[in-house]
Structure formats: C-alpha cells, structure tokens
Structures
1.
Amino acid sequence: MFNQFFFVLVLLSTMASCTGAKSAQVVSANHVLHPVDSLLNLMTIEEKIGQMSIFTSGGDITGATLRDTYKEDIRKGRIGAVFSAHSVRFTRQLQKLAVENSRLGIPLLFGYDVIHGYKTIMPIPLGGAASWDLAAIQQASRIAAIESSAAGLHWTFAPMVDVARDPRWGRISEGAGEDALYGSLVAEARVKGFQGSDLTQNNTILACAKHFAAYGAAQAGRDYHTVDVSERTLREVYLPPFKSATEAGVRTFMTAFNELDGVPATGNSFLLKDILRKEWGFDGMVVTDYTSINEMVHHGVAATDKEAGELALNAGVDMDMQGAVFYDHLQKSLTEGKVRIEQINQAVRHILLMKYELGLFEDPFKYCNKKREEQYVFSKEHRQFARTLAQKSIVLLKNEKGILPLPQNAKKKVAVIGPFFDSEKDMLGSWSAAGRAEDCVTLKQGLLQAGSALEFSFAKGCAPYGGDQSNFAQAQKIASQADYIVLYLGETRGMSGEAASRSDIGLPGHQSALAKMCKKLGKPLIVILANGRPLTIPWLAEHVDAIVETWFLGTEAGNAIADVLLGKYNPSGRLPVTFPRRVGQIPIFYNMKNTGRPYEANNKFTSKYLDTPNTPLYPFGFGLSYTPFKYGSIKLKQPFLSKDMPLDVSITIENTGSQEGTETVQLYIRDLVASVTRPVKELKAFQQVVLKKGERKEVHFTLSEKDLMFFDKKMNWVVEPGEFELFIGANAQTSRKVLFTFR
Ligand code: BGC
C-alpha cells in the first residue's frame, strides 16, 4: 500500500502531466506551484538532503557498496537515488522500500554506467565513433536505453563527451576522440538515443554529459591529474560537445574529478553556474563524480569534507555521488549559515524534476516489468545491430597488395596467433554494465562459424602482458605450416578505461617479439588490433602486410572481425583520433596551430624533432577500404561566402575498384589570417557515400557564416573577413584545397 502522501503526489503530478512538463514549468513561472514545488513544501530538511545523496549498490567497478544502513536510510528518505542496482527484481525491491515505507513515498532514481550497452554490448565509444555513422551511433544508445529501461534503470552516466588528445589517458576509450566538432555531433546523437523524444516513455532514460569539464586534458595523460588549459582552449576544444549535449536536451551533467584553473570542477561556479546555467540555460540536474566532493580536501581547497560540501553546493552541485558529504554534514552547514535553504531547495527541485519528467510519480514501477526485461534485454535484434555497428567500427589501417580479404573459398591454412583469439572477456572492453563474457563471440568462434573453406589453427603465443616466450615454439609450429598468419594483438580490456593510463602505449609484454618471430617465417602477415586507445606501432606499420583496428567490439566482436577478414563486410571505419609514431609526439592531433616556425625539411631552426617526423603514423579521419576511391577537384559555386550567401561546395567521388564500398568524405577549413591564431585545419563537415563498383557521385556541402566563427581576443563569438583554405579529402592529411573569402 502506498502511503497517503504518495497519493496526494500522484494526484498533483497527474494534473500537471496533463499539461506536459514544459507547460507545467510555464505555469510555475506564473506563480502556480509546479507539482515538484508542492512536494518540496512538504519535505523536512533531512528528506531534502536525502534526495541529494546517491549511493552505489554493488562493487561495480568503482568499488564500495551501499551503506549498511541502506534499508533504514531508504525508509527514512535519506537516500534519493541508487546506482549500479539493476534488474527488475532488485530495483523493484528497493523501489518498494522507498514508495511504500518512506514518509512521502518519493520514488528512487536508479542510475548505472551504461556506457556502450546494457547487456548487448556494442563497441566501446571510441570504436563506435570510428564508424562515423551518426545514425548508427544514435541507434546504439537507443538500444542501450531500451535494455536498461527494461531492467529497471532510469538514468545512464553517459555519454562521456570529453575530448581527448592524449592516448596515454585510458579514458580516451570512453569518448569520441580528439575533435570538438565530431565529438559534438556524437554527443548529440548519443543523448538523443538515450533520451528519445519523450522521457515519459518507459523505454527512454536520462542521459548524463560527463565529465564537466576538460577531464580529457589531464596532464601527461595520467588519470585524475591536474588540468591547466586556457579559456580559449576550454571553449574551443573541450566545451563544444557539452554545449551540443545541452542543445540536444541532455537532462543531467556530471562534474569532473580534475581542477580547472586552480578550482576543482566539483566546486567550480564558473563552470556550473556561469557557463552551464547562465550561458547555456541548462535546467536539469548536476551530479558529482564518485566522491569528488570529498576529493576537494586532497585538492587542497577545503580543510574538511563538510567545507568541501559547502563549496560544492555553493558552486551549483545538486547531488553528491557516494561521498556522503551532504548526507553527513549538510544539515550542520545549514544550521551554521554556511549554505542557504534556497540553495538546497533549488538542488532538490532539480532532482525531483528529473523524477517527475520520467513519470516516476505517476508510476514508480513503470520501469520494472519482468516481461519487458525478458523480451528486450539481449534480444536477437539487438545482437544483430551490435554486429552491424561492430563491422562499421573496424578500421583497415594497412592492406599491402590487397592481401585482405582472405580467400574464403580456397582450401588454405590460416594460423591465428595471439593472446586474444579466444578471450571472451576482452571482447567487452571497459564499462561493460550487465554484459557477460560468456555471451561474447570470440575471433575463434567467429571464424569457425563463418563457414569458409579455410582451415584454421590457433595458438596464444604469449600472455597479453608480462609472461615469457615459452609458448612461442607452439605458435611458430602452426605458423610455419600455414599459408597466412593472423596475429591478434593489443591490450586487455582492463588496460584502458578509468584508472588505466599508460606511459608506453606500444604492444605490451612479449607481443612485439611474437610479431617479429612470425615475420621471419616470410608468410603473409595480418595483424588485428584490440585496444582502447591509439597504439604506437611503427614496426608493425612498416613490416606486416595488413593491420585491422578493431578496438573492443563487444558481444558480436568475433563475428564482425571474421566478416571483415573474409570479405563479407568491406571495412568503412575511419580513425576519430590520431595515431602517433612515438609517445614523445604526444599531444599530437590534427588541428594544431602553425607556430611561427612551421616545419621546413632543410631548416634546423623550425618546429620539429631531431629523431622523429612531426607527422603521425595514421592521421585523424584515416581508414582504407577493399576498394579504392578517386576524388575529383573541388568546385565552389562562387569563390566567396557572406552573411547572407552560404557557399555550395561539391566534389565528385568515384569508386574505381571492383566492389561496393563506403567512403567518408571530409571537409576541413583553415582561416589564413585572423585576430587570433587559428588551427592549420578544422573539420567542418563530412558525408558518407556508398558507391557501387565503378559508380561516381557528386557530394555537396554547404558552408555558412557559422562554420567560420571563433572566439576573438575578448571571447566574443565572431567571424572575420578574409581568406580561407578549404580542403576535401579522405583524412586530415589531405592537401586537395581551394581558396575562398568571407566578405
Ligand atoms: C567515473 C564516472 C562514473 C562513476 C560511477 C567514476 O569513477 O569517473 O565516469 O560514472 O564512477 O560509476
């Protein structure tokens, strides 16, 4: 039985929901109470602080469990949200405790790190981003939302929209790579996928843009490390995907662990108030990252947890994740006058609004339906889609003499060697939510199920890291009897993701030695890479015949890789991030500045290294296909663009090979002279075209004034007249260009 207050609430919320959440807010502006405010008026201070506290329910990656007192806390209204609790059975049990036993019956909010799938695991976000297929990226998040919502969840801590330009940082795997524009488009797609068009539906969930802000700029790529970026870099590089998420309607934000200009993000009112609320008009809810309030003591801006809590609330935080700072100290801070009740009310209002928008006051169990859980979680359709996205995420980095695809109808022998060929768990990548290793298709399974005439043999050769070379002999034996050697090398799933920074991003352990041993056999040598970040692999790039970048592809990994190896899918992925030659080049990204002494081969006193070229091993946007594409010349409708006259740009692309393929046509600009320095290239648009063999298509782009805008010296968003270069090509290194002016 629900308590009586709950019934009052249901009445109130039903009345308001008839007018829709948006109009209910308008009504509130006219001084008619929003149902959430009516509820606020009934709440004690303890119940308010309860809403502002979220705790984890299990040891899911980040550690600790619900406080021992959780049942009592829920009954007393001292916990408003729980994370990592999932499945209909478990969430129903907790929700019942809240709505039937607490004084006001306010439903709990259930959050979880559904980062690239709930149980049907898709490619890691960096891998998905390599598809450059925004519709597919959106669909992956849609499926994740359908499964999570069917398993009792209301909220995902995704998308991570941190731009990352340092591959040593393990969390580069969780984002969309190095580019602000591409990252913004992916952010928009993912928010729309999770939230759908109507949050009151029982198959949509709240998304969370994280980690606000500039977490990806951790110094030296070391996780949780200091961030020190200029306001220009912040606004040009790190903020755009967050802004884009806001414009796409994201309802929650998560603060970052790092500091920014000396102020930890969790206590940073410049970020949380000036930018997020005032500049961008965000009216959703802000949660901290895991214990990031408490961590302000270590940052050295607060002497105690209590003081840190005051900083956080005053800066604009609404909900404290796991730190129990609000839970333990906020009441005292209020009594002492260190925080104001209006601030607490504001935070609670934001939180209740989320519950209201989800429709939890109408039906707190609407996400708890066993039938839906059975029907949708890990459904056949979802797995089929996971295979499609996994295929699209694969990037062909090298293919000498068209060695790939393997001749699937020939009776040839293929030795598959390397630590990952049968490793189910490594297919998942980091943050695999409810994904289970035993549900993953390994490469071995994928190849054997594919039904080719090829004869496969398998050997590990060595451990992924550490270990020794004692198993080389067995690998050598099968390799020397084979017609082709396929090496499956790279990182384990735990070597990227949170708290997984690396100072050496080459192949770990004895893997390079294994590759060199195989090379000596003189057979066609194909390398498949498993990794959550760019790797430094100059030896492979020079010596092996083919390299297939597969990231961590999720549940259907082995099938998708087999599809590419056997030519059932023509690879179409493109790198969303630069691959350096050596760690010493980091940070290396395509849209760098020119400097006052740009590189000249014969001039020592220009910007370069003594021991390595400036260029990357593989540039941003790069990827091959089994078919070649020919680019025509760039045509401009007129050689200028103005405020009222956009510029139509076109180019002809031709598939000159013998099979259908997908090309990602990329358009970059360079502002040649401006009042502040501009990057040597900026991605402004791209289009994917599917071309049959021999087919030609004219691809059109429209550039407008807004594509030329930037922040001037006073941080005004402006466009300046002058000359621009416009490049179109297959990756960021393209030199095919024309000039136009803005007037
Ligand atoms: C991570 C967040 C994550 C949270 C909850 C933190 O350690 O930084 O990205 O959402 O844990 O699991």
2.
Amino acid sequence: MNFVEIHDWLRETDDRRLEELWRTADDVRRRNVGDEVHLRGLTEFSNHCVRRCAYCGLGTHTRGLERYRMNADEILACADRAVELEYGTIVLQSGQDSGVSGQWLADVIERIRQQTPLAVTLSVGERSEDELALWRRAGAGRYLLRFETSDRTLYERIHPDLPAGQAGLNGVRSDRIAILHQLRELGYEVGSGVMIGLPGQTYETLARDIELFGELDLDMIGSGPFIPNPHTPLARNGDKHPAPADRQVPNSETMSYKVIALTRIICPQANIPATTAVATLNGRTGYESGLRRGANVVMPNVTPPRYRALYEIYPAKAGVEQDGDYHSLLKERILAIGGRVGEGRGDSLNYINRRITNKEVATCAR
Ligand code: SAM
C-alpha cells in the first residue's frame, strides 16, 4: 500500500468500505501473527519527568501533581504479579525521570530477569546511548519510544528540547528517530508509534507516520488517540497553529482503528497493541474492536492501585480501576472474539525473522 492509498483510507467515511479495511487488516493479522493475543503487565513505576511536552500531564508544567517513584522491591512485586497472571512480559514505564540512574534501573532489570521468566520492555523516554546499552546488557529486550509525529515542526512545538543546564541532557536536540536506530543497533526489539489527532496534525502527516513505521521496520507499534489534558499547555493555551479544518485529523475512535488497521497492513509481522488510550475512549469494547482490526497485544495495568491515579498522562485513563476480576474478565473477552491468550514471551516475529535473516547473511558471508 502506498502513501496515497494510506491517505485515502484515512479520509474514508463510507462504512461499507471501512468494513473492507477492518476485514483485510484482521486477515493480515491472522495470517501473519495468528490468533494469540499477548498480554503485557504495564508497570508505571515513576511519574517524575524532566520534560514539558505540551500534551502530557506528567510534564514539569503540571504543578500540584503528587510525584512518586516506586522502589525496587515494589517493582519486583509487580513482576511477581505479572507472573501470577501468566503474562510473559513486564513493561516498565515512567516519565523521563532523571532521578532514575542507569545503574539503578539495570539492577532492577537484572533482578527481574534472574527471579522471573519475564521479558522486560522499557518505556522511559530519551536516555543516553550508554544507558540504553547498559540496560540491554542487564537483560532488557525491548524498548518503546514513540516518535509522536513525523512532522518535525509540529514535533518541536509540542515536544520542546530540554532547557540548557539539565545534568547530562542539556543541549541535546530531541531526535527520537535517531534513538530508534541506536536501539536497533543495540539489539532491542524496537517499538514506536504516534498520537492520533494532535492539534495541527494533517491527514498527510498521519499517512507519512504510517509509511515511516514500515520504513523503520518496527517490531512493535502502539498508537492511540490524543486525549486533551486540561493541566497541559496544549489544552490551557489552546493550539496557536491549528491545521485547516478540512485537513485536521480528528482524535476519534474510528480514526484510531484506521491507524491500527493500516499499521497491520504495512507491518504485517509487528506486535501491535490495542492501546490504553483507545480503551479510554471506549471502555466497553475498545480493546475488542482494536483486536478485530489488526491489533494482537493488550497491556493490562499491574501498577499498585495507589499509584495508578497519579500517573495521569490524560484524564480518566483506562486501567486505573483494573483488579483481579478485571484480569480474568479480559481473558474471557479475548476468548469471546475468537482469540487465544498468548503463551510465553510473545516476541515480535518481525524481530525473530530479522535475526534469522541476519544470521543467514553472516553465515553466507563467511
Ligand atoms: N516518558 C516515556 C516517553 O516519553 O516515551 C514514556 C511515558 S509517556 C507518558 C508515554 C506516551 O504517552 C507518550 O509517548 C505519548 O504518546 C503518550 N501521551 C502523553 N500524553 C498523551 C495525551 N494527552 N493523549 C494521548 N497520549 C498521550
């Protein structure tokens, strides 16, 4: 599928045509990654953040938010909980927290890897190449870093560089695409994604985002609707650079499913979650609709309930209320749509096949 076709699908409004898109994506999903739905235990271990992204409630601009950072034992308890729930992966997510040192997180990763069979995914923002290498050596296998939008002007507006003077990070121009390349070189399964319906995001930009997923040959791709947070600059000050109304992408549920479906068609073997933001728009059937339209992953929250409400990226985030019953219900919901709960780590087939091909190339070259 080329850029023009992606663009035209994003603009499609005919329900019958959209049914065709959902069917195609579902078919591509089944043929490439099967009916297994992989569950990842999401652990939001710190809401400290040095950044001031205009869209996000964790930024330094959000005054009055009680900040927390879980200790290593608390994180290990989340890993145990993920094992108990038979998940194959723990996702360690936080704001970009300068209070989390490279070595501290490496020790946590090592403990999880020694004490559990879990794969470890990190989602902790833009960190130095040395730290990324240290965490890879400690046993982290995957890293999620959304590039948020491929439109550099829009990106700079909503994701400002860090002010000079911040230890270790000052003067660094934010370049998430460059970090994605570093992660690939370091041997991580590489995950990225974008927000859908950012003020100023046009259909052309979003089509380019999806095209870029394919060019980057991503192993995991998680995208979700932009949900305005009243505590953030983007919501408080309004957007001063809106796109013309007929070119602005809506942050709607349907648009989110279109992105999931098109992503599946462009990246058939990637792991693609039905994201929390989609479930926030539709708590009743958001996950199911995502899973029927190309997704094959869900990331239930295993963060201790007392911290969840404080990880307020945007209001009314799905997952704050998830408890033991919720986890069994989720499994039932997956079975009800003809899926199977994935067993084991659920590594990305894209990643596995790339490694096999690279090995074959290396053997042939010898
Ligand atoms: N600090 C890490 C990072 O920046 O990659 C991980 C945490 S960050 C909160 C995770 C993701 O939340 C971001 O990549 C962004 O796409 C998403 N996000 C933040 N604010 C959002 C909002 N208002 N609506 C939807 N998604 C949002």
